[in-house]
Automatic annotation (TrEMBL), chains A, B:
PANTHER family tied to this protein: PREPHENATE DEHYDRATASE P PROTEIN, PREPHENATE DEHYDRATASE-RELATED
EC number: 4.2.1.51
Reactions catalysed, as given in the entry: prephenate + H(+) = 3-phenylpyruvate + CO2 + H2O
GO cellular component: cytoplasm
Domain of life: Bacteria
GO terms for MF: prephenate dehydratase activity
Residues of the Prephenate dehydratase domain: 2-178
Domain ACT: 190-266
Pathway(s) it belongs to: Amino-acid biosynthesis; L-phenylalanine biosynthesis; phenylpyruvate from prephenate: step 1/1
Protein name: prephenate dehydratase
GO terms classed as biological process: L-phenylalanine biosynthetic process
Length: 270, 270
């Protein structure tokens, strides 16, 4: 099996792939766009993609990538993101003049560096890539913010642990595939729909979900560019049997303009 | 009048303050947290705060800051964010080895720099602060990504215009104040509520809004940390007369656990 991840070995995406599938062949992608295309073109069997976190909310552009590339969500996984500060063996925090990482990791750890105003924060493409380059180039004085497995893989010392500001930083990842597998007993669906223009259509749609005992676990409106009064919604729905979802999907037809099922899968727990 | 902005003079927040109030005394805040506290403590009359953009969605942590500091949204404003690359007079793109800006601006302009892999992207606290320091220190070889007014204020040359990837990058700002002013003919409200645990309560709430001819222009569910099955919602509601909102607010009582009105104000157009 071949799995596309965002970033290089040692990234949080790698950690999720490892958790779900163990040791597999990895395709390292530098962007979510590249990852989506690799899955759509059949270069890999699956792709692992972050889709949101408990602090900042959804990564909306990734929903667009899934939809535009015709991908299917076939699984989900939650990972607690704990950021580690790592450097060459023997280095300590006092030796560090520059910290490199992905902009999101830098943002999440910014309060930690308030006490170290002389340390320069430099953005890189990827958390694990920053760790990799420190080892490859034997860079003294430079630290990376990355996952604990990146420290192991690239043989670096963790010089400060769990430096992210908010400690409950769970990130939700989804597995995307070209084809929608027939899953055993799925109980969750992710959909993207445009409600019809009539006032109250969203309320009617949610009433139908309620009548089918479908639990709405996420809803987010997305303004449609250039169409100020039209909204697209992303929603996650949980149910006991697929039949509930199938019925609701038929019944909401009068109240929607468009509906894309991004995936039907088994829910995971945090 | 004294207005708190995020960032320094020349920031996009300054641009919004200028648009709304003309020349006023500014309090430059390095974080949204500091800005919120300045408003709550009465150090300023108003604060200008970015609350979301058309690409990435809401800045959820800012809703939390408004709520936790007991602030009121009293106005909104949309600004098209056009990023300019600027450097000391006489410099051209070929001279640049490093570009400094806020991580969000760097992200939005990343595709532009694909053709210049030798340019290092370095994150700073603020777009305009990066521009300011280039002028103050006479830094050759360094460029900043910032607003066009930053180029004017800090006397820099724009060496590449509108370098952001997506051209319709409208950002929504809100004005926050300590007290809820009595506004003339408000037609919009931002609320934060926790629906009661019963299935279908969100559908009932939206049905009530629909019956009062209230238009839902934004809804987003926010997972409540440590309470996996409870959700908080942020919603923007538009109406013609305040009376519609007042009635709906009473009628939804049975279906909500908590409701905070973050503000009642006049809507702005994009």
């Amino acid at each position: 099996m071949k799995v596309a991840i965002q970033g290089v070995k040692g990234s949080y995406h790698h950690q999720v792939a490892d958790l779900l599938y163990g040791e597999v062949e990895l395709l390292e992608c530098s962007t979510f766009d590249q990852l989506s295309r690799a899955v759509a073109q059949g270069d890999v069997d699956k792709g692992v993609m972050a889709i949101g976190n408990s602090i900042a909310g959804s990564i909306l552009p990734n929903y667009t990538l899934i939809s535009e590339n015709g991908l299917n969500i076939t699984a989900e996984c939650y990972l607690d993101i704990d950021h580690q500060l790592m450097a060459l063996k023997g280095q300590s925090l006092d030796d560090i003049v520059e910290v490199q990482s992905h902009p999101m990791a830098l943002l999440q750890c910014k309060p930690f560096f308030r006490d170290y105003p002389e340390i320069k924060l430099v953005e890189t493409d990827d958390t694990a890539a920053a760790a990799y380059r420190i080892q490859r180039d034997g860079k003294k004085g430079i630290a990376a913010i990355a996952s604990s497995i990146a420290a192991t893989i690239y043989d670096l010392d963790i010089i400060a642990s769990d430096i992210q500001e908010i400690k409950n930083n769970a990130t939700r990842f989804v597995v995307v595939e070209k084809e929608q597998e027939d899953q055993q007993e799925p109980n969750k669906a992710t959909i993207n729909f445009v409600s019809s223009h009539e006032a109250g259509s969203l309320a009617r749609i949610l009433t139908i979900f309620g009548a089918q005992r479908i639990n709405l676990t996420k809803i987010q409106s997305i303004p449609i560019v250039d169409k100020p009064f039209l909204f697209s919604f992303v929603a996650d729905l949980e149910f006991e049997a697929l039949d509930q979802f199938t019925k609701a999907r038929q019944q909401i037809q009068p109240y929607i303009k468009e509906l894309t099922v991004l995936g039907i899968y088994k829910s995971a727990t945090l």
